[in-house]
Design a protein that fits this description.
- The protein has helices at about 40-55, 65-75, 105-110, 120-130, 135-155, 180-185, 200-215, 225-230, 235-240, 265-270, 300-325, 330-355, 365-395, 400-420, 425-460, 465-485, 510-525, 530-535, 535-560, 565-590, 615-625, and strands spanning about 160-165, 190, 235, 255-260.
- By secondary structure, the chain is mostly helical.
- The strands form two sheets. A two-stranded antiparallel ribbon has the order 1-2. Strands 3-4 form a two-stranded antiparallel sheet.
- Helix 1 packs antiparallel against helix 2 (about 65-75) and helix 2 runs antiparallel to helix 5 (about 135-155).
Length: about 625
């Protein structure tokens, strides 16, 4: 039961049972999810169908408890028309939840995994903010649903776990997408109908996490990581900050809470379901989920899981390095990762030797202490890799962002000044006038920006390199002095042509220029819409092809309206170039890199194979040539 963008394929029903297929979901119900003013459609769609899986059929169990719970589920659904869907029709239909091959009993007994994504709280935050009464109503609805789910899985004979979590938080206005603590923090609650941890296992897990924290913080590279990777506990201060006295003192101390990264959910769920961790996931399994040590004859579950996890992360790094010459990993980072993994493997072999042939040795205190140390080393290794890659791949540098915006603005100003001057004088004169100022300004800008970069880096505002500072300063200095040199020319003002207004005469060429400018502005505004962003590739192709086609029509008009001469020759060249661009654009459209949201209707071809992540040499060369 997904929102609309995540709908998957339906598995085939065979042999009067739900098909256990790895290629798709047995039941998928997508609901419209992009209208933030609609607080109930997605939630009602989910809550109306969950009882089909969680509650036994009425014919199988007519107890008063089940009857009351069924009625509670019905009361959670706010829109009565939801029950008019064919899923709730007693007569089975094609693609309905219950079919002629799969009845209510199979739905209840044979499901392995259910994913239910509610959006009401998220939409409510966007529409009203987090302090509106509507939020309280939606949270109460979710709390009741969670209570009913817990009751259902407690009656289930199969070991079942319930994960309740959000993918983000919200700020004081109900929005998200930034990096404030309120936006990036979300709750995680896990419940099971079987005992899966104890006080002793929790204490062992805590020692593993604190030992790993010491290993990470003691390393020069690890000490620079984000706090969530260095520490496994944190204080929810952005919540306690809302409760202060008149003097500004906190009315209560924020509690210390266990913290995990969202990326860890992938590896945790995979191993919990008996599946391998996806190749490109860099998360670490949540230790508490595997720390039970009831079986003294077997290896400690947490140690086994973390060793598998570490081997998967190392395999990803090795494959990435072997398949990409420009991987960007420093020799020091690669050496550190290998040393940490090898140290953990050496410790594991030491543990195996200490246990020897007698499994009872696992209960000895020094063996348990050694198990915890080895587990901490594996945990520290996976976190060290994640922290290093986060610094390389997922850091936002505000100074470089502002430098890029400044370069963009100054470059546009320089182009406008060049365009204006080109209508008044030849290009040779413009170059002679602004060339040397442009070069000297670029050099001066590079020197100044490199001097400032040391201040930015030492204060923690930026992690730019000397090359970054040089290029940014050179670009901004050159563009700025180029504009100043042209605008300050007293003999031919950059804007001297404006009063003449000849350039505003309505001609096909000026109309095309206006249309091109409008199309560019619309393309920029398109990023305010998720749907346009998802389909940017086809939108850009359509817009560019339209403009080029209009240009080719103007070229044909110039050819037909002119006899032999320069104008006719220019029109012919423009027509040939336009047709060539049309063909190249259409050819390039067959080289695709798909967004995740497009995968059901898009096949990536840029890499040569759907499973590849790096383009072959001949495909890359073909794209460059085109």
């Amino acid at each position: 039961m997904f929102p609309n963008e995540l709908s998957d394929t339906q598995a085939t029903e065979t042999n009067d049972t739900l098909q256990k297929s790895r290629t798709g979901w047995a039941r998928v119900r997508p609901f419209p999810s992009l209208n933030v003013w609609d607080l109930d459609t997605v939630d009602d769609g989910v809550l109306s169908r969950l009882p089909m899986f969680l509650l036994p059929p009425e014919s199988e169990n007519k107890s008063e408890i089940i009857r009351k719970e069924r009625e509670q589920w019905r009361q959670l659904v706010k829109q009565p028309h939801m029950w008019e869907h064919s899923d709730f029709n007693e007569m089975t239909q094609a693609n309905s939840m219950v079919s002629d091959k799969v009845g209510h009993a199979q739905l209840h007994h044979e499901w392995d995994m259910i994913i239910a994504h509610g959006l009401g709280v998220d939409h409510c935050g966007h529409r009203f903010g987090p302090d509106h009464s509507a939020i309280s109503h939606k949270l109460a609805q979710m709390n009741t649903a969670i209570e009913l789910i817990v009751n259902a899985i407690d009656r289930n004979d199969k070991p079942t776990a319930l994960y309740v979590f959000g993918d983000h938080g919200m700020d004081n206005k109900g929005d998200h997408g930034g990096d404030s603590p309120r936006e990036v923090d979300a709750g995680l609650w896990i419940y099971s109908n079987r005992k899966w941890h104890s006080k002793e296992s929790d204490e062992r897990t805590a020692r593993v996490l604190r030992n790993a924290q010491e290993l990470i913080s003691s390393n020069a590279l690890g000490s620079s990581f984000d706090q969530d990777l260095k520490e496994s506990w944190w204080r929810n201060t952005h919540l306690s900050d809302d409760y202060k006295s008149a003097s500004g003192e906190h009315l209560f101390e924020a509690p210390e809470l266990r913290s995990v990264s969202q990326i860890d959910l992938v590896s945790t769920l995979s191993l919990s379901l008996g599946l391998p961790i996806p190749f490109n996931n860099l998360g670490t399994a949540i230790p508490e989920m595997f720390a039970s040590d009831n079986d003294s004859s077997a290896e400690w579950g947490l140690l086994s899981v973390l060793r598998l996890n570490a081997a998967q992360v190392l395999r990803y790094i090795e494959k990435y390095v072997s398949n990409s010459r420009s991987h960007g990993f420093t020799d020091d980072a690669l050496r550190l990762w290998n040393d940490m993994y090898n140290q953990a493997e050496d410790s594991y072999r030491e543990l195996a030797d200490a246990i020897g042939q007698n499994p009872k040795n696992r209960r000895q205190p020094h063996i348990r202490e050694l198990e915890e140390r080895v587990a901490a080393e594996y945990f520290a290794f996976t976190r060290m890799v994640l922290g290093s890659l986060r610094q390389m791949w997922a850091q936002f540098d505000p100074v470089l962002i502002l430098a890029g915006l400044g370069t963009l603005v100054l470059s546009i100003a320089a182009l406008l000044a060049l365009y204006a001057q080109s209508r008044l004088r030849s290009l040779d004169i413009i170059i002679a006038r602004a060339g040397w100022p442009c070069i000297s300004g670029g050099i001066a800008g590079a020197v100044v920006f490199r001097a400032l970069s040391s201040v930015f880096v030492s204060s923690g505002l930026s992690h730019m390199t000397s090359l970054d500072a040089t290029v940014a300063g050179l670009a901004m200095g050159a563009a700025a002095t180029f504009c100043v040199a042209l605008v300050s020319d007293s003999k031919a003002s950059t804007f001297a042509f404006v009063p003449q207004l000849q350039w505003l005469a309505v001609t096909p060429a000026t109309v095309l220029n206006v249309v091109a400018a409008v199309a560019t502005i619309i393309h920029c505004l398109a990023f305010s819409s998720n749907s346009f962003t998802f389909n940017e590739d086809s939108i850009v192709l359509y817009t560019v092809q339209t403009l080029v086609l209009a240009t080719s029509l103007l070229s044909v008009r110039a050819i037909l309206s002119s006899s032999a001469g320069p104008k006719r020759a220019s029109g012919t060249r423009a027509l040939v170039c336009s047709l060539l661009i049309l063909v190249l654009n259409r050819t390039l459209a067959y080289s695709t890199v798909c967004r995740e949201e497009q995968l059901s209707a898009c096949t990536p071809t840029f890499y040569g194979a759907p499973s590849a992540s790096i383009s072959t040499v001949y495909l890359a060369a073909a794209n460059v040539v085109m």
